[in-house]
Amino acid sequence: MSFENTPYKDKKVISIGIVSELTGLSFRQIRYYEERKLIFPERTEKGTRKYSFSDIEKLVEIANKREDGVQTHEIRTEMKKGKEKQSEKSLLKEMLRGQFNAHFKSNHDRTS
Amino acid sequence: MSFENTPYKDKKVISIGIVSELTGLSFRQIRYYEERKLIFPERTEKGTRKYSFSDIEKLVEIANKREDGVQTHEIRTEMKKGKEKQSEKSLLKEMLRGQFNAHFKSNHDRTS
DNA sequence: CAAAGCTGTTAGATTATCTCACTTACGTTT
DNA sequence: AAACGTAAGTGAGATAATCTAACAGCTTTG
Question: Residue A109: its pLDDT value, please?
Fold first, then answer.
């Protein structure tokens, strides 16, 4: 019930090896982009970095822009720009999805 | 575009330490439930187990049933039962969500 | 040209995970 | 009571994964 809506996408649970594998980036690059404030992994007690799927998507974006010769500094400011645009959009989306779920629930979810 | 629909929930990317933390189960228990065929983590090249969010949800379920004294063997058969019921439901859900996304896209997604 | 940006690589240390075996605690069966 | 199966803790030893820090090389920018 509260688990259903958990934003898996943003949960920091993935270690750097998997991130490297999924993005094709080296450990060095991944850590460097953190140093340049492009991504913000969390840490476990002992210091191991933990990333989310969102971070991975971001890294893919970063990799693409880097291929186009864009510097991390510019990428950083570019990413800051694209934030407000999303917040309205995603809010609207949330609301619509809320309606959607309500509709679905009242009509079809008769299991327990 | 194809990333948006990626089923993060089923991607096997989480190591056992995090799983233990999120579920409150010990390493021993997590591995034992695998031995009893309740969950099916993947492995990396070198043999490290990797779990998905689905696995974690399943483990929470398992933990609850265990607290009620249900044995792993029974849990296993119970879980097999609850599979067909879901497949119709989720199929329907997919279809509805498809309509939903189409609707949203044509009306609001004018960014690029 | 000098400085800054980006990445590879190496080294040594620490943390995380793996398997296997032994043990404990309970409840059930013989 | 003795034997048994289930579920889980614990310990040992080995291997895998990650961390920081430093040096090096190459390219781009000022």
Answer: 40
- Contact between the CB of B64 and strand D at under 7 Å: no
CB contact under 8 A, A104 and B93: yes
Q: Report chain B residues touching chain A, CB-CB < 8 A.
A: 3, 6, 8-9, 11, 13-15, 17-18, 22, 44, 50, 53, 57, 60, 85, 89, 92-93, 96-97, 100, 104, 108-109, 111
Determine the Cα–Cα distance for residues B11 and A8; give it in Å rounded to an integer: 11
**Residues A96, B93, B37, CA angle at the centre, nearest 5°?**
125
Task: Estimate in Å the CA A50 to C1' C13 gap, whole number.
Answer: 20
Q: What single-letter amino acid sits at A49? A: R
pLDDT score recorded for residue B93: 59
How many helices (H) and strands (E) chain B has is answered by 5, 2
C-beta of residue B3 within 8 angstroms of C-beta of residue A57: yes
Q: pTM here?
A: 0.80
* Burial degree of B56 (CB within 10 A; 0-12, 13-18, 19+): buried
Closest CA to B17 of B8, B9, B25, B7: B25
